[in-house]
Amino acid sequence: MALPKNPKVDLKLKYRRIFEISVILALLLLILAFKFFPRFESESLGAEAVQELVEMEDVEITKQETAPPPPPKPPIPIEAPADEELEDIEIEDTEIDMEAEIAAPPPPVEEEEEIPVEFFVAVEEMPEPIGGIQGIQQRIVYPEIAKRAGVQGRVYVKAFVDESGAVKKAEVIKGIGAGCDEAAVDAVLKTKFKPGKQRGKPVRVQVSIPILFKLN
Fold first, then answer.
1. 115 domain-assigned
2. How far is CA 4 from the centre of its chain?
3. 189 lies in a domain?
4. Residue 31: left (phi > 0), alpha (psi -120 to 50), or beta?
5. What is the dihedral angle through the alpha carbons of 123, 125, 131, 136, rounded to the nearest 10 degrees?
6. Which residue from 156, 208, 209 is spatially nearest to 180, judged by alpha carbons?
7. 27/21 Cα distance (integer angstroms)
8. Is 84 helix (H, G, I), strand (E, B) or coil?
9. What CATH number is attached to the domain comprising 150?
10. Global pTM?
């Protein structure tokens, strides 16, 4: 059960009176301040700063001029013929005679076209080198450049063999360079073949020959 508060001790009842007295005292203080101190003089504080003088110099604007082109080379003097030499020269008449008969130009010489000889690619009996591939290998002269460079490999040469077994032409299909291709072709050209045959008759045949280049 709550006990009733004593009105003499209760501060909430005196808040209003205390507030009113505080406001009255504040107003009295403001009135007295304006009455006895009407003006406030402020002292001006000045600071003297040392002024620095900066001298400005006029800078001339420089213009970059392009170098003039080099003078042209003097012409090479050409010796003119003397007047005496000019008198000895006879100038022929250059007029064209329109009535003169003009001979027709000779007909162009027709060049005879070389008729290509047909070589079979595959026949019943293909050409075989006499002595075998080993015989061609013995004719190989290993190029000195290839030896020094250590070039090795296989060169494929196409040989065109006629009815008598002679090589009419040889060309490199796949080479390795360093002079080995030329050495392979030269060895094939010097080789005699057993001619190829079709139905028992010698014929012209082209055959591919592998030649090995290997250092010992």
1. no
2. 107
3. yes
4. alpha
5. 10
6. 156
7. 10
8. helix
9. 3.30.1150.10
10. 0.45
Record the tokens describing residue 197, joined without a space. 């045959």
Kindly state the tokens that stand for 124: 């019943």
Q: What's the chain's length in residues?
A: 216
**AA identity, residue 190:** K
- Structural domains counted in the chain: 1
For residue 12, give both structure tokens.
């909430």
Nearest Cα to Cα of residue 205 among 168, 174, 160: 160
Dist CA 163 CA 201 (whole Å):
9
What is the rounded radius of gyration, in angstroms, for the C-alpha atoms of the chain? 62
Alpha helices in 4-126, H assignment, sequence order: 15-36, 83-87
**Tens-digit pLDDT profile for residues 98-143:** 565 555 556 655 554 443 468 888 888 899 998 888 999 898 889 9
In a domain, 96, yes or no: no
Query: Closest Cα to residue 141, out of 189, 186, 98?
Result: 186
* AA letter at 76: I
Backbone angles phi, psi at 14, to 5 degrees: -100, 0
- pLDDT for 94 beyond 90: no
